Amino acid sequence: MLSDAFKYFIYLIVAQGISFFSILVPKSDKVLFFSKPDYSDNSKYLFTKMLELNLHKKLDLIWVVYANIDVKNVKRRTLKYLYHILTAKYIISTHDAPIWKSRNQTAIFTEHGMPFKATGHLAYGKYYNNSLKQRLSLYFISKKIDYLLSTSRLHAIILAATWRLSIDKILITGFPRQDALFDKKSEKNALKLNIKKDSFSKLILYAPTFRDWSNDDLSSNILHNKKLQQYLEQNNYLLIYKPHKNTKNKSHIKFIHKNIMLLENNDLLRKGLHLYDIFSVFNIVLTDYSSIFYETTLLDIPIIFYVPDMERYFMNRGFIFNPIKWLPGHIVKNIDEILYALDDCLKFDPYKQKRNFIKNVMFDKLNNCSVRVIDLIFNKYLES
């Protein structure tokens, strides 16, 4: 059986072959959109704004997907896909830049997270950058990025180090998805998902990240805890559990308890939504090492960090910032501490000033981010 490293080596050879051949192929005014999952995150918000600005009349906007969607698309690993990757002038992706990209194509890497847990060339835990496959992947992806979106000068500096890029390749535009945070449709969108804000006194979002090295789902420690369930019921709070897209969720029951609801990516995608389309309905965000806490500061929502495995996470992946000094919220490791933090957040909100500090250093641009990106990269199509 072929090893993962050998398979990746074969992929690199094929991708580089496509890249060299692609230089000879004329490019059309075509934009390919990539995201994980399909039709989501920054790529989707950028696409939507391009439609609003009628850029689809001047540019051929095509989504590259695994499953069919309601907008113009092509499925991966088909002959049509090969044709489009050879003839597209622009590539927009939430996850990396494609290794098959040629010199006469422009790759815009929108990013999908922000710097807290170490990634790229900054990852130093024992799980990361220890294999030839990982090192080759980082090297080739970095070479293919033409533009990388960031939210602030500090963020831009960190990204330059993460991907070993020249700082002039990093655009301080804000993330396109930030625009959704300031939209007034959150409650209406939440109703599409059967989230009725008026039926509960508080809504709590629980959005943990995933662990690359383990299938352990720490969320079960919370979701099935009787003490927490009783607390939520007594206070008429609804906890909405949004698992990471890479987490292998064993249960698809929508209501784990009458005060605990499961919200999966597919639930959002079926309604044409992303988590950011409903974000402002939440009163508290419970997370761990997920960079979702950064954008939470834009709405000034209290944050609690449930991190019972902080030491293990540090050893396996690493952090860019010292968690104890950097995180703008209660750091908790068990249910009793979570319950205390929930009460403290709602009564006193002791981390409000620290949230404001994080917002100011991590966000130079707050909204209108999609338009800012389009002005910088597609300006000639707006003027023509």
Please explain how this structure is put together.
The protein has 17 helices and 14 strands. It has 384 residues and is of the alpha/beta class. The chain folds into 2 domains: 193 residues, CDP-glycerol glycerophosphotransferase, N-terminal domain (Rossmann fold, 3-Layer(aba) Sandwich); 178 residues, 3-Layer(aba) Sandwich (Rossmann fold), CATH 3.40.50.12580. It has a 7-stranded parallel sheet with strand order 3-2-1-4-5-6-7, sandwiched between helices. Strands 10-11-9-8-12-13-14 form a 7-stranded mixed sheet, with helices on both faces. A hairpin with a 2-residue loop joins strand 10 and strand 11. Helix 2 packs across helix 16 and helix 11 packs across helix 15.
List keywords for this structure.
alpha/beta, 2 domains, seven-stranded parallel sheet, seven-stranded mixed sheet, Rossmann fold, single chain, 384 residues
CATH classification class of the largest domain? Alpha Beta
> What's the structural domain tally?
2
Number of helices: 17
CATH architecture of the largest domain: 3-Layer(aba) Sandwich
| Unreliable parts | none
* Sheet with most strands: 7 strands, parallel
Strands, count: 14
Looking at CATH, which topology of the largest domain would you report? Rossmann fold
**Structural class by SSE content:** alpha/beta
Q: Give the termini distance in whole angstroms.
A: 55 Å
Which term fits the overall shape?
Answer: globular
Average of per-residue pLDDT values: 92
Q: How helical, in percent, are the residues?
A: 25-40%
